[in-house]
Design a protein that fits this description.
Length: 212
């Protein structure tokens, strides 16, 4: 199945995944592959949402203490699903499970915040990012997420602009997609905003954040 996928034999890989699941309905790898292929191979988000829910159930059955796997699965599929609400809701559940298993992990708390951002729930996301900065007061990810939520909620005051400038300085070597987006949204010069969007284009597809 993995070799077929690597060879870009999408239909064959999907067929193999279905054959595996017919033999073993609990196979996590086959559920992952089927979800991925339905999502990016055919853009069938309705069916991939059903498959992803099955994947989430299997993870909770056999990997119920694996916080990192919950978080990574939510992050991976959440960023690829083109903000499909049904898939994002399942991703959020996985992220919440991971954060609950390791409540002292600031990165996991930030990942949960990211899922809320993808769902457009900026108030809930802000709470996650605030908790992230409480767990780690030096967390750049927490500050970036909190600032992004403020901007997406319509706040573009001087304090927010100072936070963006600080993040630009911290990430000067390799700015994240979030920083590029924030620069575009707070810019009062259309040309500068357009340039920031162009610079961050390749990264937006990776993190799945809203750019409209």
């Amino acid at each position: 199945m993995h070799l077929q996928h690597a060879s870009k034999q999408i239909l064959q890989a999907l067929e193999t995944a279905n054959r595996i699941l017919a033999m073993d309905p609990s196979c996590i790898e086959a559920h992952k592959m089927k979800t991925l292929l339905l999502m990016i191979g055919s853009s069938n988000f309705n069916e991939s949402a059903i498959t992803f829910k099955k994947l989430a159930l299997e993870l909770e059955k056999s990997e119920n203490m694996n916080a990192k796997l919950f978080i990574k699965t939510a992050e991976f599929f959440g960023n690829l699903c083109c903000r499909n609400k049904n898939i994002l809701k399942e991703c959020l559940k996985l992220a919440e499970k991971g954060a609950q298993l390791e409540p002292g992990n600031a990165d996991f708390m930030a990942d949960m915040g990211h899922q809320y951002v993808l769902l457009g729930k900026y108030k809930e996301a802000s709470k996650c990012y605030k908790n992230c900065t409480k767990l780690d007061d030096s967390s750049v990810v927490g500050l970036a997420g909190l600032t992004l939520c403020q901007i997406l909620s319509g706040k573009k005051n001087e304090q927010v602009k100072q936070q963006v400038d600080f993040l630009k300085e911290v990430e000067s070597d390799d700015p994240s997609a979030e920083v590029y987006l924030m620069c575009a949204k707070i810019s009062v010069v259309p040309e500068d905003a357009a340039q920031a969007l162009v610079q961050g284009t390749d990264k937006y597809t990776i993190v799945g954040i809203p750019v409209e």
